[in-house]
Amino acid sequence: MRRGNLTRQRGLTLIEILVALSILALAVLALAPLFTMSVRSNASSNQLTNANTLAREKLEELSGYPRNDPRMTVTAPNNAAGPTTASTGTGSVVGINASCLNDLPKWYQPSTGATSITAPTGAGWFSYPYSRTYTVEQFDGDLTTRVTAPGAYIVKLITVTVRPTAGPFPGLRQTTQSLYLRVRDG
Question: How many domains does the chain have?
Fold first, then answer.
């Protein structure tokens, strides 16, 4: 009787184990690209978050200056100021304002947090991964009519653009943020 019970008990054969492991390996291999995509997506989101933070930081800085500060000046006969003479929109006449150029450092050292605008010497320095520029436009009270300097304006529109220059998607995840600044007593 004992011998009859032993023959009815069955375990997994070597072939069944190999088939099960093959199916498991194929399932894991099918999921591997998802991990790569999630790492890229996370890096891209981190890049966009940093760009948004740098843009918001510049808007906060500019909003604290007096409206006639040289960093926010529009020169005659223009109705906008920017880092280049490129148009900021329909009807804009942009004058170059050197303050609107990239104000971020060119180099940084992650281990110490040091930054530099000139080419550094020594090891451990990397190109700063973002550039930041802004434009200033002048408008009348209706927010649609541009005012040419030195005319009286009611509102200044500050537009900050931050572009990644390195990372997973350089240049693709740029951010642009704007802020209307009303003139006191305007």
Answer: 1
Residue 5 has pLDDT above 80, yes or no: no
In a domain, 162, yes or no: yes
Instruction: Report residue 43 as tokens.
Output: 């890096």
**Higher confidence at residue 8 or residue 94?**
94
Torsion of CA 105, 109, 110, 113, to 10 degrees: -70
Please check whether residue 26 lies inside any domain of the structure: yes
- Domain hosting 99: range is 13-103+129-182
Give domain status of residue 140, yes or no: yes
Assign 4 a pLDDT band (cuts: 50, 70, 90). Answer: low
CB-count exposure of residue 162 (10 Å: 0-12, 13-18, 19+): buried
Supply the pTM of this predicted model. Answer: 0.77
Is residue 1 in a domain? no
pLDDT value for 166? 85
* DSSP, residue by residue, 63-129: HTS-TT-GGG---TT-SEEESSS---STT--EEE-GGGS--S-SEEETTTTEEESS---SSS-EE-S
Residues 6+ apart with CB under 8 A from 18: none
How are beta strands 175-182 and 155-164 bridged, if at all?
antiparallel
